[in-house]
Amino acid sequence: MSTALLVRDTALRAPPDPVRPSGFVRLRGVGVSFGTGPRQVQAVQDVALSLAPGEFVSIVGPSGCGKSTLLNVLAGFTPTTAGEATLDGRPIDGPGPERGVVFQQYSLFPWLSVRGNVAYGLRVRGLPRAERTRVADDLLARCGLSAFADHFPEQLSGGMRQRVGIVRALANEPRVLLLDEPFGALDAQTREVMQELLLGIWQRFRTTVLFITHDIEEAVFLSDRVYAMTARPGRIKAEVAIDLPRPRTHAMTGSGPGLRAVNELKSLIREESLRALGGELPPPVPVP
Ligand code: ADP
Ligand code: MG
Q1: Total of domains in the chain
Q2: Which atom of ligand 1 is least distant from the CA of 44?
Q3: pLDDT tens for the chain, residues 1 to 288
Q4: Ligand 1 atom closest to residue 234's alpha carbon, by position in its atom list
Q5: First-last CA distance in the chain
Q6: Ligand nearest to the CA of 63
Q7: Which bound ligand lies closest to the C-alpha atom of 43?
């Protein structure tokens, strides 16, 4: 077993430290269904996964397989119907400032400046104004956004808004950052730059990151590990370790171990996408 694997396994087995909670995420036997009776949809089933503190993990899977559902469970927006989700050993039973969330759609408050958006969560937590401004300005400076502090969201490009969204999510010093296809609406070039910026931010803050995407190159470029899901009901189909050094470059996903990981994940997801399409066929007529 490689050293990296050993380190990771040790981290995963280490009991969570209640004094210094550090972003250890675990799902065990998690199932989520929506609706009741014949309209019931089993979105995910028997999902087990874990993220070690500071680890960058992605989940890929065909559309509709339950990726957002899993993220929403961890965010505390969606209750599980089976199993358990924990952060640092504590069950997740609602949203909380120790979990920062960024969605694909821009969710900045249009009536607040960039600084106001970043400071918003601190305001909710009751920090005095001077302290909020200091923390927000410091974060914006560390993420190269000082020049935009007084701008309003409508004055920013899509990429810039998502950058501010990430900084806003970091303002509460979350133990885990949950990102649901945050670059899904961006053009390919902006997307690559955003991926690099995200890694820069992550390497500085070392928060645990769970990144949802259907873009396999993106997952491989960013992650320490990638989980591939099955078609609905979503389960974990495979887990692929990304043995690439950091800092990463986009060229790394085009050859060697990076390309092998991309191809492995592509064939896993392709199987599932085909299965999902087959699943759209009408059910057989019951024999009386
Ligand atoms: P993904 O993010 O992988 O595309 P989702 O987690 O959004 O998938 O959805 C998984 C499945 O659960 C889909 O079939 C979706 O239609 C269904 N679903 C998600 N949210 C709800 C909801 N609130 N009510 C009913 N069905 C839902
Ligand atoms: Mg989704």
Answers
A1: 1
A2: 10
A3: 343 443 444 444 444 444 456 999 999 999 999 999 999 999 999 999 999 999 999 999 999 999 999 999 999 999 999 999 999 999 999 999 999 999 988 789 999 999 999 999 898 889 999 999 999 999 999 888 999 999 999 999 999 999 999 999 999 899 999 999 999 999 999 999 999 999 999 998 889 999 999 999 999 999 999 999 999 999 999 999 999 999 999 999 999 999 999 999 999 999 998 888 875 555 667 766
A4: 10
A5: 56
A6: 1
A7: 1
User: Which bound ligand lies closest to the C-alpha atom of 70?
Assistant: 1
Task: Take atom 5 of ligand 1 and give the residue whose Cα is closest.
Answer: 66
89 domain residue, yes or no: yes
Residue nearest to atom 11 of ligand 1 (CA): 43
Ligand 2 centroid–CA 180 distance in Å is 7
Give the amino acid at 90: R
CATH number of the domain to which 80 belongs = 3.40.50.300
- For residue 268, being part of any structural domain is answered with yes
Q: Is 61 in the pocket of ligand 1 (CB under 6 A)?
A: yes
Using the structure block, give the residue that is written with the tokens 């392709």.
270
Q: Answer whether residue 162 is part of any domain.
A: no
Which structural domain, as residue segments, surrounds residue 16?
A: 4-96+216-276
